Amino acid sequence: MTVTPLTIRGFRIWKGWLDAAAQAELIAALRPVLKAAPLYRPATPRGKKMSVRMTSAGQCGWFSDAAGYRYIDHHPSGAPWPAIPEPVLKIWRSLGDGDRMPECCLVNYYDSEAKLGLHQDKDEADFSYPVLSISLGDDGLFRMGGDRRGGPTESVWLNSGDVVTMGGEARLAYHGVDRIRFGSSRLLPKGGRLNLTLRVVT
Ligand code: SIN
Ligand code: MN
């Protein structure tokens, strides 16, 4: 476990924050979430299906379609979003914000081909709270920029068990995932990468 984060462009990267047992506990806690709220591929406002599959836990879930990016209070099937599992909340208590708990845990699943273009997380009402990201499974190449599209970027491989906090100057910074090193981890039986992002939304 790291006690001081690697800091790149204001992104605080807690390498190896979760040991193998903590990672396995998270996967077990996520299984019923994925059962109650199956992964789906959102469409961008321009109508292109995203390669990343997503679902959410919490009071609201992140969603996108022709009507735009937003949070919605039910899974697209109409089912309620499941609660954010306790082992996930525990990480927020350690590295997130002390005043408020997250209202959304967005779950992203990357298969061997999936990637996530550079974007800002700005569908939330208050940017004074950090976004906290948890990486599980295969390695993902995470790209970090600044608050302007087209500016300089730096990349780091995120490994299973790494936690990143995007707060302060990094809260509205562009970020994305260029590629997955498929099969680099044995945490998920079918391979791939799961990323959880915890967000205060309202
Ligand atoms: C995200 O920006 O929503 C996810 C980032 C990641 O998968 O590491
Ligand atoms: Mn994001």
In short:
This protein has 202 residues and is mainly beta. The protein has helices at residues 20-36, 86-95, and strands at residues 6-8, 11-14, 53-58, 61-65, 68-72, 104-110, 116-119, 131-137, 139-144, 154-158, 163-166, 175-181, 193-199.
**What is the domain tally?**
1
According to DSSP, the number of beta strands is 13
> What would you call the quaternary organization?
single chain
Stretches where pLDDT is under 50 for at least 5 consecutive residues are none
Classified in CATH, the superfamily is Alpha-ketoglutarate-dependent dioxygenase AlkB-like
What would you report as the Rg, rounded to the nearest angstrom? 15 Å
Question: What is the name of the CATH topology?
Answer: Jelly Rolls
Which compounds are bound in this model?
Answer: succinic acid, manganese (II) ion
The dominant shape is globular
CATH architecture: Sandwich
Secondary-structure class: mainly beta
Helix amount: 10-25%
Mean pLDDT: 97
Order of strands across the widest beta sheet?
Answer: 1-2-11-8-13-6-3
The CATH class is identified as Mainly Beta
Element string (H = helix, E = strand)? EEHEEEHEEEEEEEE
Q: Cα distance, first to last residue?
A: 32 Å
**Counting H and I runs of at least 4 residues, what is the number of helices?**
2
Fraction in beta strands: 25-35%
